[in-house]
Every structure is written in C-alpha cells, then in structure tokens.
Amino acid sequence: MVERFSGTKDYVAGEDLMMAVNAAIALQRPLLIKGEPGTGKTMLAMEVANALARPLFQWHIKSTSKAQQGLYEYDAVSRLRDSQLGEESVKDIKNYIMKGPLWESFQSESPSVVLIDEIDKADIEFPNDLLRELDRMEFFVYETKELVSATHRPLIIITSNNEKDLPDAFLRRCFFHYIQFPDKETMTQIVDVHFPGIKKQLLQQALEVFFELRETPGLKKKPSTSELLDWLKLLLAEDIPVEALKTSDQRKSIPPLAGALLKNEQDVHLFERLIFLNKRSERK
Amino acid sequence: MVLLDFFFRIRDAGIPVSVKEYLTLIEALQHRVASESVDNFYYLSRATFVKDEALYDRFDRAFGDYFNGLEALPDDFLKDIPEEWLKKQLELSLSEEDKKLIESLGGWDKLMETFKQRLEEQQKRHQGGSKWIGTAGKSPFGAYGYNPEGIRVGQQGSRNRRAVKVWDKREYRNLDDSIELGTRNIKVALKRLRKFAREGAEEELDLDGTIRSTAKNAGYLDLKMVPERRNAIKVLLFFDIGGSMDDYVRSCEELFSAARTEFKHLEYFYFHNFIYESVWKDNRRRNNERIPISQILHKYSADYKVIVVGDATMSPYEITYPGGSVEHFNEEAGAVWLKRVLDVYAKVAWINPTPKARWKYHESISITRELVDDRMFGLTLSGLEKAMKQLAK
User: Fold this and answer.
1) pTM of the prediction?
2) pLDDT band at A103 (very low <50, low <70, confident <90, very high)
3) Chain B positions with Cβ closer than 8 Å to A
4) Which of A39, A158, B16, B186 shows a CA-CA span of 20 to 30 A to A246?
5) Torsion angle of alpha carbons B176, B179, B182, B186, nearest 10°?
6) Packed helices A200-215 and A225-238: angle between N→C axes, nearest 10 degrees
7) How far apart are alpha carbons A150 and A145 in whole angstroms?
8) Which of A22, A27, A164 sits opposite B24 (nearest CB)?
9) B19: closest CA of chain A, how far (Å)
C-alpha cells in the first residue's frame, strides 16, 4: 500500500496540494512547490515528513551553493594538513569526504524526505547539475570510485519563489504545485490549527482587517499567512480587545500592531498616505 | 485513446508538455494516485503537465473544454468586451434567501447563446441589475455577481467560491502571460557579457600556488588561497521611466532583475525620455535627489559598460534643442549630454523596447540611433544577445 498524505493537525492542505504530494510519493518523483512567500512552502516538507514518519534532510540553498555540496564535499585542505602531522586517518580518503544531505538521504534505512529549499537562490546552472542525481537517484564519488545509489528513493520536495527561472529539462522531471493564497474559509481553518482557543469574534474581525489590507493596491509585499499568524499572536499577547479592531476602520486609521503585517517601509508609507487621503476626503 | 486526445488538446492550448510528462501521467494513473473522480484527475494532470502557475489558466480552459465538450471562448472574444465596462466597482452582498431566489439558467450552450445575444444588444457598461452583462449584478453574465451558473468575464479574483467546476473558476486568469522573455532567458543572454576575474576576499584554495610554496617551504604545507572567480564586468544601466515607457514596464522589470543578479558591479539610474544634465536613483524622490551626469562621468571609470534602456520616442526637439525637455528647462541639449557620456564610455548599447519595425517611423529614434553609432538593439532575446556581443568586443 502506498503511503498517502492528507494534511496534518498542524498543517491545512488543499485537495490539489494533497494530490500533488501523493503523486510525488507514489511515482517517487521530485515535487516542485511555488507560491507567495509565507504560504507554507517550507513547512510542507516538514509536515509531510512528520505525517509519513520519515526522516527529513534539509538542504537550504544560498547564492553560493553548488550542486556538488548536496552530494558530498572533499576536504583536501584538512587532509593535507593532517598528512603533515602524520595522522593515521590520512591513509583513508573516506575520512575527508563529508556527506551532503542527498547522500545521507540515499543511505537512509527507511524512505526519507529531502527538502531543497529556495532552489532559485542558486546560480542559474544549479538545477541542471542535479538532473541525473534526481532522476536516477545515484551519483559517483570520484575520490573513492564508488557509486552511491539510493536504497529507498527519497521524496524530494523543492521550493522556489521565482517565476520561470528553472530549466525545462528540470521541470519535466517534477510534479508541480503552486500554493495559492488561502481564502477566508481556509484561513480560518489554518488559524484554528495554530490558535485553537481564539475568540471567534476577534478572529473574524482580524481576518477582515487582514484581507482588506491585502487588497490595498500597490503594496510591494502583501502580508501572507505567516504574517497573519504572527500578528494574531501579538494581538493575543497584548490582549487587544475586539473593539479596537472594529473601530480601526481601515480607511481611517492604522490597525493596532500593524508592524507585524506590513514589513516594508514603502508599504507603511503608502498605507499611511492612503489613510491620510481618506480622512481628508471625508472632512470635505 | 481518450488520454492521448487529451494530451494533444493540452499541447494545442500552448502548454509545453512532453512525452515524458504524458508517460508520467499514465504511470500515476496505473498507481491509482487519483481515484475515479474527475476532480482528482484534474489535480493530478495539472500537477503533471503544468510547470508554471502562469499557465494554470490556459490549462483550466483546455481541461474544461475537453471534458465538458464545450466550445472554448476564443481570446479575442473576451477582448472585444471593453475592459472599463467590466471593471468591478460594486460588490453585491446577498443573503442566503436571495441566493436561493436566483435561479440558474439552462445549460452552458444556452448561456453562451444568450450571452452573445445580449452582448450584441448591449452597447454600454452595465453594473448591477439582473439582465445585462457587467459586474456585480445578478445576471448570469459578468463577474463579481452571484449566480451559481454564471459566466465569468473580466474577473480578477474569485469571489463567491461556488462556480460550477474547479477548472471553470479559472482563478489564475490574471497570471497568464505570453511574454517570451522570461528572466531565465534574459540571464542566459546576459551571460555573454561575462568576464571572469578573481577579485575580493580570498576564499578558494589555490592548488598551484599551494604546491609551489609548499615545495619552496621544504615540503611543509603552506596553504595559498585565492578569491573566487566572479563576473568582473561593470555596468551602468540607465532606464527611461514613465510616459511612453509604461507599456514596457514588465519587460524592463524582467531585464532589470536579471541584470541585477548577473552583474555584481551594477549601477542603475533613471531618466525621463532623454538623458539630460542629471538622473536619479529613486523615482519617488526624483525631484530632490538628482545625480548630475558629470558626477557619474567622474565617479565611474571608463571601463564601465553603459546600457541605456529607452524607447527614444519623443519629439526631436527634446533631443536636439536646449530647453527641449518636457519636464524642465535644460540649458544644453540632450544630444550634448549623451555625447559626453559616449565620450567617456567606449562600450555603449541602447536597448529599445519598441518593436524594430516601428523604429523608422519615429524621427527621434533615427536621431538617437545616429548619436549612438547605430548601437541600438531591440528588447528581444536576439537583440540582447547582439547587444551583449557588441559590449563584450
């Protein structure tokens, strides 16, 4: 029986997302996840690993990351140094090969989950360098002349923020899912999962403020799920009454603790100006 | 082969699917990833075939088209409807009773027929009400209204999530674009302008150097490090902004973001229509924070390469006469200032987003072309490649 993912108690997954994850599990192909920042792309890998009780190997990509680092790195410098000191370990090159997350996952005793986070951060050729490794789930270690191939093909989840930045050959090998921004209903579910005891009224009011804020035209960075959750946490911690949210009609004043929602200086500026304009037009 | 038909329908819709993806879908079906329902099949085939959220809408249309045996709405059919007329302004809030009261009209065919009929009858923008096409009404046509079986036209996001089918919701409509220049393509084109050099912090092991100095050191290890190889090309980028450039904002943004990641030494400036005595770095503070061109000429050495992005579409006076600028009184003509830039920097490329076929109709473009010694290139992939080749010479 193939394992199935159907969300967890901490993670609300849409039907389409579940389908994409399950297809990737069944066919053992990589899954590419895109979506606005803060919609839970990285969380997904952790939750899938949790739900399936598989070990998770994380590989966070930086602009200087090389594909090779995911497989292994050969530390020639320490070997040279050790050879000067006459260490015993020098004789075996294996002592100087450091396994990367992909190697670790290939060797894992049970099927695992690998997260390749923010693949678009790396150099433009990065995904091409991983084609064979992700396809065949094997690679060659030149230093020791051994072929490492996966005992269990891991489930590989790749996240990306960028539009159209990945080569076709790479995309062909993946399943793809775009996490859409949740609607109010789903958002209520998500908040319920994170703050089970939250007052209905407060939540409703907060969501209203939140979605209205998202609609503000011209925002550089719209607040997303993770910002909403942070904001709610603050609201609860500060014990802000529902009335404070109600009176703060978007068009007239800034909602309390708005700093958690708007993180871009230009956005705050824009928002303040809009409020100012609204106030003025009302006075007339 | 029903599935093969479907595959070709998706391909015809302009979604780049390959045999590999088709086989993947068959494999997934064999594994019974999706149960029998059409909804599940929709999700599965979308995850398999579509690799770009901008294509979700096209896929939705092709899918609905195939599975409902409907006639797809041709795109120009929608374009014929004036945009402004469909713009949402009102929103309809209906109670549950109201919703129940609204009855769905017959099938899709009937809806379409009536839709076209009404479209012919109706001439101007319409809002509210329950017969005409427009937004926020109860008629089955137009968006932001409520009718369970309505046809959505010109809707930007989903309101009442009760459309007939998931794919019929076409939630990804505003993401669809047919821009050929993706950032990836641009980056590949810009790559031609790479000149690797080692500069900056020393972080890589210099094998040759280490061997040499270790040998000198009588066999004792002496590590030598070198800086990593980086693209050492230096670029000054001037962007025309506002006015006639608004049409090309998208492609310019793509070019800009690609250039920013590709070139480590990149300085960018904005100007309006033509380069005069000063430019600016922040469009919001363009009036008080201007940078004189003379300062730029002194600050950045002559080995910088200059790329100007602008449509060069304006009145010829704006280039050739003092005081010709539309925004301020310029004491010296734009041509003089451009000449000064050209005198300092030998490598210059002017990238013009207007289609090349239209260049000859604008006198200002011809003048500019002459000024830059015909080093004007279109904002297309081939144009960019030519420009980069020319700059790399």
Assistant:
1) 0.62
2) very high
3) 16, 18, 20-21, 24, 27-28, 31, 33-34, 39-40, 43-44, 46-48, 50-54, 56, 158, 161, 171-172, 182-184, 187-188, 191, 205, 210, 220-221, 223, 284
4) A39
5) -170
6) 140
7) 16
8) A27
9) 9
